Amino acid sequence: MPVAQQRPVRLADIVEPARAAHDVAGGLAAFHADPAVSALRHWPEDVIEQWLYDHAEHAPFQADYGHIDLSSLAWTVEPVTLADLLLMPTGASETDLLDYFARDPEHWVAVRNKGCHIGVREVWEVQGTWKRWPILLDRGVVTPGQTGLQVVEGRTRVGVLRGRARMGYHVAANHLVWVGRVRS
After folding, report:
1. 179, 73 contact by CB (below 8 A)
2. CB under 8 Å to 138, separation ≥6 — which residues?
3. Predicted TM-score (pTM) above 0.85
4. Average pLDDT for runs of 10 along the chain of length 184
C-alpha cells in the first residue's frame, strides 16, 4: 500500500496557531495541539518553542524561510567551532543583526537575567558558551546549492559569542547547536 504524502508545513501555517496559543493559558501545549504543529511531531520541543512558537510571525523569518517545507526537516544537536560561528551568516533579511548584538555583548548578557534566562551570565563566564542551543539550518535548505550553516534563531546568543570573542573574554572553542537538514 502506498504511503500517504504529508502536506507541506510552511511558516505561514504556523502564524495563527502561535498567535492564538499566546493568548490562552498553557499556550505552548495549545500550540502543539494545532494540526500544522502536530505534523512536526518529529521536531524537538526546544526547536518548536524557540523558532515556531516564539517567532512564527517575525516578518524577516517569513521572508527568509517561508518557502521551506518544515515537515521535511530533521534536527540533530551538533558541536560547531568558534571559528565557524564567527563567520556564519544569518538570514538575508537581517544580515547585520549578528554584528549589532556583537557590538555590546555585555548589555545583552545583562538584560537576560529573569525567568528562563537566569544563569545566562554564569554560563558565559564559566563555560564560555550559551545556556540554550541556538537553531541553525543547512544553507542548502534555504538556497539549493549553498553549503555550510546559517543562524536562524539565537542571533543574540551568536552575536554575544562574537562580541565576547572580539573583546578577549572566555569563549569556548566548540558550541552545541540544533542543526536542521532535509530528512533522508
Report:
1. no
2. 148, 149, 179, 180, 181, 182
3. yes
4. 70 94 84 93 96 94 96 98 98 96 97 91 96 98 97 98 97 98 93
Q: Which is nearest to 10 in space by CA: 33, 30, 39? A: 39
Q: What does residue 82 show for φ and ψ, rounded to 5 degrees? A: -55, -45
Q: Is 40 helix (H, G, I), strand (E, B) or coil?
A: coil
Dihedral sign (CA 160, 116, 50, 23):
negative
Give the torsion sign (CA, 41, 47, 50, 52): negative
Contacts of residues 17-23 at CB distance under 8 Å and 24 or more positions apart, as own/partner, are: 17/56, 18/52, 18/53, 18/56, 18/57, 19/56, 19/57, 21/53
